[in-house]
Amino acid sequence: MGDTAENGTTTQDGRRTGAKPVPDQEPAQGADQERGRKLRERRIAAWRSAPRVLARLGFLGPLRERLALLEAAGSVYDLDETADLYGNGVVEALEERVAGLLGTEAAAFFPTGTMAQQVALRCWAGRTGSPVVALHGLSHPEVHERNAFSRVGGLRPVRVTSEPRMPTAAEVRDFDEPFGALMLELPLRDAGFVLPTWEELTAVVDAARDREAVVHFDGARLWECTTHFGRPLEEIAALADSVYVSFYKSLDGFGGAALAGPATLVEEARAWRHRYGGNVFQQFPTALSALIGLERELPRLPEYVTHARVVAAALREGLAAAGVPWARVHPEVPHTHDFQVWLPYDAGVLAETAVRAAEETGTVLFANHWEPGGPGLAFTEVYVRAAALEWTAEDVRAAASDFVRRLTADG
Questions:
Q1: Predicted structure pTM score
Q2: Which one-letter DSSP state was computed for residue 145?
Q3: CB of 48 within 8 A of CB of 359?
Q4: What is the DSSP letter of 188?
Q5: Which of 190, 207, 260, 285 has the most CB atoms in a 10 Å sphere around its CB?
Q6: Mean pLDDT, the chain, integer
Q7: Mapping DSSP to helix (H, G, I), strand (E, B) and coil, where does residue 205 land?
Q8: pLDDT digits (tens, 9 = 90+) for 82-99
């Protein structure tokens, strides 16, 4: 699922998950990277041209399509207003919208979630007097941010657990080191986009409170958690002392993030945003795309989550009927509109088969890369968005059957 920068690898489709290779490995890795690059180009080209996909992710589309998103800008903001300068205007409007949705006193726009969370947790460290942040070993800062918490933020992350599940209240309450903040990623992407139950989440938060720690939600994908929890956004956010949300992972914006919480914390975060170089001169295209996403995509996320459960069940049935010796859809009932599929084959074989099936049929069942999960075992992520609503369960089963037929024909 990736590693830290110091122990990096190259995945089968050429994505870098860590540091530079050892010199005597460079020729082999260079060849692998080139094959991965070409496979990725084929995969994206097939996805772009395919009539049938489960998700059309904007950031992989051509630039012309991305720019076309702003054609709707006039419906979310008065375009006769002056463009933003260093965070006013449309950026302020976006911040107010986010604070209102999450029920917090204030919110601050950030160019990246990495910056937003570093700032939030160093602010909390100053207030609690502790630089120690308790988190999951599979959380985004631990896996994907080159140890930014310790190298840049002066924080010391400690892992409550590294099991592919959410931490439990007992693990938080009985953890053998003191910590000033508990960070919870909702959902936990690298464990399969998993979420706790509402009762489990409240128990974990209470356990942190019992230790007099603050709670911060890494809510990059918080927007799609309402269906699983059966609670509105503001009730979920109210459990935490601060929340980070992303504008592109679910909402299809150009990028950007927001940190929401108490007004005093957000004001301090704005000062640190400036120090980190995040007080960008103009951000109106990104801010407008975020407002469009909140208007267009946010209301549809529950529908995507519901249909993801249909897709997951049909996938499981289709793979089993096609005679795959072992397969796993994880979670069995998706917690959000994203989930994992595990198969007992080499990642490279699965990736090539998926791309060839997309090229030859115009139907893309597995649009993402495949990652090794052990000897002869690999997994991929499946995303369900508006395009998937056109698929029936039988469509999914048929696509799964065709994929397995191609896979077994290749040996």
A1: 0.91
A2: S
A3: no
A4: B
A5: 260
A6: 93
A7: helix
A8: 999 999 999 999 999 999
